[in-house]
Amino acid sequence: MEKIILGAIEKHLKDNTVIGHSQHGFIRGKSCLSNIISSNDKVTHIVDQGKRFDEIFLNFSKAFDIVPNSNLLDKMSSTQLDKHITPGLEDILRKFADNTKLGGAVYSFEGREALQRDLNKLEDWAITNHMKFDKGKCQILHLGWGNPDRLGNEKLESSGAE
């Protein structure tokens, strides 16, 4: 049953370009490994040019214990998935990951500001969706020299090669 549901969801997402090319998790032919390779290619290219790059690793606090499944199902329904598929997903939702990452070139003031804006938007999104980050598990990797970054009002711990 899960394979049938997965196939229908994948077809819909592909046909309607619901998920961007950069998405690796839960996509056939893509994995954590393909994500790492793609990310490392991007970072290496920027650092090889003598520029700085920050990658922020974020961890949600008990992500799928906090968000009501009905919120997730409503969001999935908004992608126009067949209404017969989404009710069966409620039991499957707890299999999703609870972490993400955000990165950007920070060799200019504008780049640093853009990354901070993106981080702020992610924090706002989490709050809006009744999520919260486990800020003690969130870290930033500075490739080059570092700059302060905050998640909400808290500065992220650095674990970088500065």
**Relative helix content:** 25-40%
Instruction: Give the mean pLDDT.
Output: 75
Structural class: alpha+beta
Main sheet: strand order:
2-1-3-6
Molecular structure report:
- The structure is a single chain.
- By secondary structure, the protein is an alpha+beta fold.
- Helix content is 40%, strand content 15%.
- The protein is built from 5 helices and 6 strands, in the order H-H-E-H-H-E-H-E-E-E-E.
- The strands form 2 sheets. A 4-stranded mixed β-sheet has the order 2-1-3-6.
- The longest helix has 20 residues, at 109-128.
Topology:
Layout: H1 2-15, H2 32-48, E1 53-59, H3 63-66, H4 69-77, E2 99-105, H5 109-128, E3 139-143, E4 150-151, E5 154-155, E6 157-158
Structure, briefly:
With 162 residues, the protein is of the alpha+beta class. The chain has helices spanning 2-15, 32-48, 63-66, 69-77, 109-128; strands spanning 53-59, 99-105, 139-143, 150-151, 154-155, 157-158. 40% of the residues lie in helices and 15% in strands.
Notable characteristics:
single chain, 162 residues, alpha+beta, Alpha-Beta Plaits, 4-stranded mixed beta sheet, two-stranded antiparallel sheet, 6 strands, 40% helix, globular
